[in-house]
Write a structure and sequence with these properties.
- This protein has about 270 residues and is mainly alpha-helical.
- It has one domain.
- Helix content is about 70%, strand content about 5%.
- The chain is built from 8 helices and 2 strands, in the order αββααααααα.
- It has a two-stranded antiparallel sheet.
- Helix 2 packs across helix 4, helix 6 packs parallel to helix 8 and helix 7 runs antiparallel to helix 8.
- The chain is globular, with a radius of gyration of 23 Å.
- It starts with 7 loop residues before the first helix and ends in a 5-residue tail after the last helix.
């Protein structure tokens, strides 16, 4: 849908609306089809790219692409080692998967939204959000997956009894009068981890996409007048500058999500 056919508010609302299909009686479930498809496609592209590089890897002098991938793998492995000195057989691949997948989802924010709307409209989809990480369902699904890993490794490292003992006796002590405050504080701490993890990624990417829209709207008032020409020029320059800066945000948010996920899982192995 072209921006000139919309008011600024409807333009933003249109681009922030998912392609949703309701399921069940009375539309009890709402499925964001675009989020699911984009997440799967980007995940498969990431796996396919890594597989192609691994397939062509050589023990001789590596090419540039292989050297870059090996350097990236070493960076992730060293990051995990700094956080968790134990076995990285699970945490290493988990960190790599999280970083690559989140980065690929964030990277779609650099694709002009009007291009996405034009293609999706031509295919008969009235709405299509190309950035899965701007959907709260995606970020919370990933963060609560990390939360379940935290619970799983807590049980594995401490046992059910040890986990419950810590829930009621840390950090204030084992006095029965402190059991309820300890338990309440630990529950809040546990739930705050996935909530903050999901909200941080969603908030940063959603805000970044919104800024792109506002800069695009500035370009729609360009005309042959001096003011219109200045607005159009400013829109182009600011959009380019924000895109360059946004690359750093995309990388940083993927890195933060990866590091915090590893930190939280590593903390689950600690005894108090």
């Amino acid at each position: 849908m072209a921006a000139e056919n919309l008011t600024p508010s409807s333009y933003i609302a249109h681009h922030l609306t998912n392609l949703t299909v309701t399921v069940g009686e009375g539309g009890f479930w709402a499925v964001n089809v675009d989020t699911i498809i984009m997440s799967w496609v980007l995940g498969l592209v990431s796996l396919g790219g890594i597989w192609l590089v691994a397939r062509g890897a050589t023990a001789e002098v590596p090419g540039r692409l292989q050297s870059f991938v090996e350097m990236f793998f070493e960076f992730v492995d060293n990051t995990v080692r700094d956080v968790f000195p134990g076995s990285r057989a699970f945490l290493g691949p988990l960190a790599l998967t999280i970083f690559v997948w989140v980065f690929m989802m964030n990277l779609m924010d650099l694709v002009p939204i009007d291009w996405v709307a034009t293609v999706s409209g031509g295919l008969g989809a009235p709405h299509w959000k190309a950035v899965p990480s701007t959907d709260l369902n995606t970020t919370f699904a990933m963060s609560f997956s990390v939360f379940f890993l935290i619970i799983f490794f807590s049980f594995k490292a401490k046992g059910v009894g040890g986990f419950l003992h810590e829930m009621f006796t840390a950090p204030f002590g084992s006095n029965p009068a402190l059991w309820i405050p300890n338990f309440a504080l630990n529950v809040i701490e546990l739930l705050a981890k996935p909530v903050s993890l999901g909200m941080r990624l969603f908030g940063n990417m959603y805000a970044g996409e919104l800024i792109f829209m506002l800069l695009g709207l500035l370009g729609t008032i360009a005309s042959l007048s001096l003011g219109g020409a200045l607005a159009g020029g400013a829109s182009g320059i600011l959009t380019w500058a924000w895109a360059v800066f946004h690359i750093l945000i995309i990388l940083l948010q993927a890195f933060i999500f990866m590091v915090l996920s590893v930190v939280y899982v590593a903390m689950a192995h600690e005894h108090h």
